[in-house]
Amino acid sequence: MGTKQFLGVIDYIVIGASLLITVGIGIISRLLSNKQMTAKEYMLAGKRMTKLPVVLSIIVTIVSPSTILSAPAEIYLYGFKFAIGVFVLPIGMFLALKIFIPVYFQCGVSTVYEFLEMRYGSMIRYIISALFLVQMIFVMVVSLFGSVLSLSAVTDLSLEISVISLGALCTLYCSLGGLKAVLWTDVFQAALIFICMASLYVAGIGDAGGIAKIYEQAKEGHRLDMFDLRLDLTNRHDFWACVFRGIIFGIGFYGTNQVEVQRLLSLSNIKKANKTFLITIIPASLSFLSCHVLGLIMYSVYYHCDPVLNKEQSGVSRYDQIVPDYMIKKFSSIPGMTGICIAGLFSASLSTISSCLNSAATVTVVDFIKPLYKRGEISDVKTVWLVKILCVVYGCASIGLSFCFLEVRSLVQLLNVMLNSLEGPMLAVFLTGVLTRKGGDKSISFSLIVGYIVMTWIGFGSLNSKYVQPPLPLSIDMCPSRNVSSQTDIAFLECTTTGNCTSSISQTAKPTEDTFYLYKISFLWYCFIGFVLTQAVIFITILATGWRKNVIPEDSLCLSPVTRIWNKPKTPNLNDVNKENEKDENYDLTFRM
């Protein structure tokens, strides 16, 4: 049985120092703020942030442990087709910039769910806000637990101490400094993530024998068979599923998700937000792509000796552990280098968790607590304290719930099921709101609930069925010891080397013919199916309630500027608004608190 690697004293010093610096940045951000921080300053950084921290924050927020650890595992097992979504991601991001971001500045909101009430009514706002909070808690749990679980399996790092320490430190600097602290700590964390990824690339390419060798082995192993245009909903990485997933993710995550939109709202006006977001599109896409290419590098490194099939010698029992295991074993001879890389993985967790904490606390106060006050009146002092307290509450909840995911087989699949169940239906609601004048509060809420319930049923039905699609061929023909550890691994090896995958590749997986068809649909299709289903229900409810009825005027601030193409009474021209704003040095967009 493979033994765990022991970290050196210098490694622990480096990890500890990186965490202390992160907390220090949060404390400094608070000290440099006003003595009595206002609600706008705490939740939107006073709308005075510069481009650099916002750009880096947008990039690193999406680089979670799932991205760094499980995305390479997906490529390793199923091929580079999974990365097709990355290449079309800029299309979705650009559409989000043109369709959604101007609307939030027009309406002067601090959360995207405030817009929903302005456009539809309070019912849909509360429903989506509540679902968002559940989603964020889950993302925080997976982000906190993902890297720690993988690292603790191959090193002497304590699982419990690591989870509690990361969660507590993240909660501390988030509650102290608000969004400004989150943005500036993301700058430091971006540097650590970059060092970690660059180190893995340099070492991996060298061990694999060079870029040409990586390409050759990936091609021989069918990892580069990307352009099979046949439509197959049950193919884990179907070409069209990857394309639609990439575009919808770009539109939905960057156009309707509070975590990313809140960063753009911290800028003073739409002109600066547009420029900042345009700068972000390519680096964000490249950061995603780098994690996917890492999967090809790892496949080439282990081309003749899969570490999971040879787990008695390697100590690796899950494919999520391949990257951290390689990192630890490769850099253990360089004092402090392993510590820097682990700090990079921890930074990926912290950047995602801090963003979710801040957004979840903001949404809770603005969308749930504020409406309870008469006429929505609540002082800045109360608002700031409420958000701080909620940051602590959500942080503690994430730490406590983190230990519920010990047996999860694939973080990326579970995370996608949770996110995609809501993302598709929610995108349909937002698009209907900004592009049309149709749809009332009740009909839209009904459509969202139908879409969400159906997609949640399919997603969790798939997980409970334990259906596993056979991976591409793997090999142990050049392992020091070719003893396969169990009958399960023997079946798995026969499947991957011969292509005869009619038998189960795990003890809990069911044969293909015994699994309900909808449960075999690739998780990459969930977002698209949820979007189409919800949009269809919206269309039907609008027809049933009166398709001629318009619920907002043609010049409503809730309509996207792109509707000027088909609406003659034009919606507000944001260029004209910006010109007026620049005339008044003290201009500030209304903060709806």
What do you see in this structure?
It is a single chain. The chain is mostly helical. It contains 22 helices and no strands. 67% of the residues lie in helices and 0% in strands. It starts with 8 loop residues before the first helix and ends in a 10-residue tail after the last helix. 53% of the residues are buried.
Secondary-structure map with pairings?
Blueprint: H1 9-31, H2 39-44, H3 51-61, H4 65-78, H5 84-99, H6 101-107, H7 112-119, H8 122-154, H9 159-208, H10 211-220, H11 239-256, H12 258-265, H13 270-301, H14 311-314, H15 322-331, H16 337-369, H17 380-401, H18 411-435, H19 441-465, H20 487-498, H21 526-546, H22 574-583
